[in-house]
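Notebook B, p. 112. Complex prediction, attempt 2.
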Amino acid sequence: MDSAYIADPDYEELFERAAVGLGHQTAPIGDLKSDMIGKYDIQLVVDEQLPTLMVYASHLNDAGSKLKLVRTPSDIIKLYFLDLGEKNISERLTNVKRKINSEVKLTTEDALNLGVIVLYSPRNRAHEITEEVVRLYLKIVDDLNRDMEYTLYSVISILLDAYYDDEKEYRRIKNMLDNKTSSDSKCQYASQEAMIESLNFAKEDLQFANEKLDAANRELDSANRELDSANHELGIANEKIAMLEAQNAVLNDKLKGK
Amino acid sequence: MTRNRKYNKPFDLCHSILFNNFPAEYTSTIGVPGNLLKKSTDVFI
């Protein structure tokens, strides 16, 4: 994913659970982009005065997202001024690096910036930036409070998983990260990870069950259709019988009349 | 050979973690101060 994110502007609707991405859409929409658009609820806003903006809501639940992401183009263009681009990421990195190297006490925002930098890093520089951030993290990890350590450790671990294709490289960076992180944070992360995994399994189970249900429904449908056609045939047969009975009655009457 | 990934939506997950653990700080870190939020909605209502 190559665009920057921004927190959601519509705090009443989305803010609690969602972050909305806002990026410049300079490239035309190809297959890859339309695939991404399908995965997220993306609204495109075209304004002749501005580059096309792309807004997408992430981690909304599936049911709620479509309904809630209704807002006017003006709301989105307003947020153009809160741009977070790639340029911004290198600025952030430089600032944090300077602070850490000169051993100034870091604020919560500074520490969070480490996570933000990795999260928003442009895809083509993700490896380089991630490694740099991991090195910075190792320098300050002993001074972080537990919450912050856990948060940064989780975010970096998850993004390592996202960015690295090569197992060896992944292991190398992950080991660097693991070696200095306290076991408390690692345990907490592992338990969260297990929870996420079990959620994924539950989702798969649900999907499997739904598929079964669908198949059963389809069978039921076809059985119903068969029953209908049988009923129809029965109806025709009944009509024939009624007709024959009527003819019979006429013949009987005739017989009696004779 | 490509690794098997653990997570489907890593970006969403990271947002959740950052936001849930430090809601106010995360918001201000990525540059959406609360007063601005209010203003930007007020204008259009």
